[in-house]
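A.,

Following up on our hallway conversation. Structure tokens first:
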């Protein structure tokens, strides 16, 4: 079995760690939301979308402005950030890869590491991609709420009685395995946006926040060190939310998406830019009006999630747990909102790579500041391993962020990396992004963007002779991989 690494990390960060409080007995609260464009949050600079709860949380936490996921859909990104390993190591490269059939022998996931350390572990909603893919890992949880239970799990029943999810009752899918009927239902479901037809109290995402508040109340009494993961299904498609959130945004006041098709040169995904998308507008591109309506609906979903996060964070505070709980707020990967004529995910571009990622460690010197250094989701496990003294066992492929929680301005990684299930890869530095396509899904073998002049990645410079040396350099960095981009002295 491979062994770690934590001793090395602990020595290497000792200077910064000296400024950090003793975190070894702290609890961990992870709020993970689905398919979130990082730029929609007020604290990330969005002037329209209203997110007062997370803005307030960020004002007392470290907001990572240059945070990147390692894969662009649920299963590979979650498997990566829950193991501290990159997708090429986990072997989980797409939503179709069953985690327990691909993970190398002996690899632990974060909840298992925390359980081994003696924490009480609880999960509300989705953490791993599906219960079938991670039954062994889910079985280690002390509590599972609002999610399917793995075989053999024998934990306590629901902490509060909730009515069955209205959505499932009012709009049931046809039986799975019926082929076309199910596919068509799924498409229509996913393509919807606007009023969900439900009151906030009927929405499963709000109910998850209620359950979280109840569990936090219990944790305040039992005083056991805990790990609690709470999911939010929005702003994943369908982009539906209670009417009061939809009414917050007037589509007429939503600006046109950037990077329109007319601005693209040497674009890698021309077929997709003119045809259907995954998850929404699946058959054809939206009209300009539909695009504005969908963005407004996305903002409504984000404001809804923000309110739910506020319920959880308020409960943490009112139970007196905020001073002893590490809080991580993240979106599992990004989302296109009409830029490049793209909707949803499944591209190697910035809108899917960049993620919302805010961390509050009580007493950390950098709380209240933004960190602009490159960080990756694969850094989460090394960070918690250092903060809590976990035996991660896995040969971790990220870098503990503890030094940045003490000093967010110190020099850090020079690049971030992402892969997809087809062998396509991207490396992004401060000035350039470089994409290599192996799958045949793209129309070009490579793309190079000068982010200093072209932050929306519209003009592919890969074949420009003047950029030959840059392309060679970026291709070399992509080949050398993450170890060639580590922070100084790591
Ligand atoms: Ca997702």
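Then the amino acids I'd put at each of the 490 positions:
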């Amino acid at each position: 079995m491979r062994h770690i690494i934590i001793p090395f990390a602990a020595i290497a960060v000792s200077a910064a760690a000296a400024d950090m409080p003793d975190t070894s007995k702290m609890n961990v609260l992870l709020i993970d939301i689905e398919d979130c464009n990082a730029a929609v949050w007020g604290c990330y600079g969005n002037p329209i979308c209203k997110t007062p709860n997370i803005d307030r949380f960020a004002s007392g936490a470290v907001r990572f402005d240059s945070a990147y996921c390692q894969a662009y859909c649920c299963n590979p990104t979650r498997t990566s950030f829950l193991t501290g390993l990159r997708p090429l190591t986990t072997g989980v490269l797409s939503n179709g890869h069953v985690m327990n059939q691909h993970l190398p022998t002996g690899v632990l996931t974060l909840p298992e590491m925390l359980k081994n350390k003696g924490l009480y572990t609880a999960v509300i909603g989705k953490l791993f991609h599906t219960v079938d893919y991670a039954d062994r890992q889910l079985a280690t949880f002390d509590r599972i709420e609002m999610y399917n239970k793995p075989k053999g799990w024998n934990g306590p029943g629901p902490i509060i009685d909730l009515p069955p999810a209205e959505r499932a009752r009012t709009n049931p899918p046809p039986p799975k395995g019926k082929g076309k009927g199910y596919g068509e239902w799924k498409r229509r479901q996913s393509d919807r946006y606007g009023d969900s037809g439900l009151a906030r109290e009927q929405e499963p995402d709000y109910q998850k926040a209620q359950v979280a508040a109840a569990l936090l109340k219990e944790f305040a009494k039992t005083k056991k060190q805990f790990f609690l993961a709470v999911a939010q299904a929005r702003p994943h498609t369908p982009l539906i939310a209670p009417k009061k959130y939809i009414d917050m945004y007037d589509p007429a006041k939503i600006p046109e998406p950037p990077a329109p098709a007319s601005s693209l040169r040497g674009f890698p995904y021309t077929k997709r830019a003119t045809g259907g998308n995954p998850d929404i507008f699946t058959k054809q591109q939206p009209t300009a009006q539909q695009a504005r309506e969908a963005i407004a609906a996305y903002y409504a979903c984000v404001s809804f999630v923000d309110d739910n996060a506020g319920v959880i964070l308020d409960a943490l505070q009112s139970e007196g747990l905020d001073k002893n709980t590490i809080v991580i707020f993240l979106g599992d990967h990004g989302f296109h909102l009409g830029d490049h004529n793209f909707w949803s995910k499944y591209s190697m571009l910035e809108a899917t790579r960049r993620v919302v990622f805010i961390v509050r460690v009580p007493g950390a010197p950098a709380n209240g500041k933004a960190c602009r250094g490159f960080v990756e989701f694969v850094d989460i496990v090394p960070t918690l391993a250092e903060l809590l003294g976990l035996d991660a066992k896995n040969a971790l492929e990220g870098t503990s962020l503890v030094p940045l929680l003490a000093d967010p301005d110190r020099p850090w990684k020079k690049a971030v990396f992402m892969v997809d299930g087809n062998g396509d890869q991207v490396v992004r530095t401060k000035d350039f992004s470089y994409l290599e396509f192996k799958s045949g899904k793209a129309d070009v073998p490579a793309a190079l963007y000068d982010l200093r002049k072209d932050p929306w990645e519209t003009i592919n410079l890969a074949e420009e002779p003047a950029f030959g040396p840059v392309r060679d350099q970026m291709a070399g960095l992509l080949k050398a991989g993450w170890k060639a981009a580590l922070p100084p002295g790591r």
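Residues 235 and 284 are 21 Å apart (CA to CA). Curious whether your intuition agrees with the design.

B.
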